Fold this sequence. Notes:
9 strands; alpha/beta; 57% helix; nucleotide-binding; Rossmann fold; seven-stranded parallel beta sheet; Sc_DH/Rdtase_CS; two-stranded parallel ribbon; 12% strand; 12 helices
Amino acid sequence: MAAALLLLLVPPAGLLAALAFLARPRAAQIPLKGRHVFITGGSSGIGLAMATAAAREGARISILARNLARLEEARAAIQRDSGRDDVGVHAADVRDADAVARALREAGPVDVLVCNHGVFVPQELERQDMDEIKWMVDINLMGTFHLIKAALPAMKARTRETRLPGSIAIMSSQAGQVGIYGYTAYSASKFALRGLGEALQHEVVADNIHVSLIFPPDTETPGFEEEHKRRPELTNIMAGSSGGMKADDVANKALDGIKSAKFIVPCNFEGTMLAVATAGLSPQSSPLMAFIEVIGAGLMRFVALCFQWNWFSTIESYYAKNKKSQ
């Protein structure tokens, strides 16, 4: 209460000045031209779109995925669309730490690492097989650990050598900001990435490396239709309000966030509202965004409670209706 009253007494200009002093890490710009960008999940979807866009900006691209044939097709597409020949491809499974380390050694020191790999199978926890849950956690979470741990030593040396900031971008999901029915295992694997990113930013800030967490909504990727076929009916009812995006649009939002060294990178209006609602103790380098978070925190909590009321009401109505029909 005292903090709320204090905010009312402080003029906006004074609050902005205070937030400009407090905002950390300091704002930075991450150039892409002439630098090495390494992207996992780069053979299709968001990863391929990011690789193509970064190549157009003059970056040297390396992409990693499991299927070599699809990687070669992606390389040809990137070369055709960007006019660049220096596109490296690396076939590896991110669950295999040794294979990941070998791919990164072959690729050479990385300036911008984009951990874009991920899998998603929606299902109620009680009905989902534990092997499937472990598969998601191993790829979405452990695969990210494998990549960052293998890339970090050379990335640190690279930032010292070039005196330019580096970036580690981690592709999460709006399901990594809020849990919803049918996403129990998937949300767990994506929420964990936030803890990884927040702690990692503390560990690498002195090395001039910036961490970005990207939170896309449903995105039209090759696996999108299959994922929706597996969704529980109730999940479709509750999540239907979150609009899908084109992979190219998500890629552009993601690259803009990386280049601006933003820690939280939302991809649409709903994502921005979620970012404000879940800001918590996350790093924030933008005084203006910090101002919006401080001023909007109370309102967004009220909006969040309205959403939760709607979701729980939907669940109650759904089960009540199903019981009557039995």
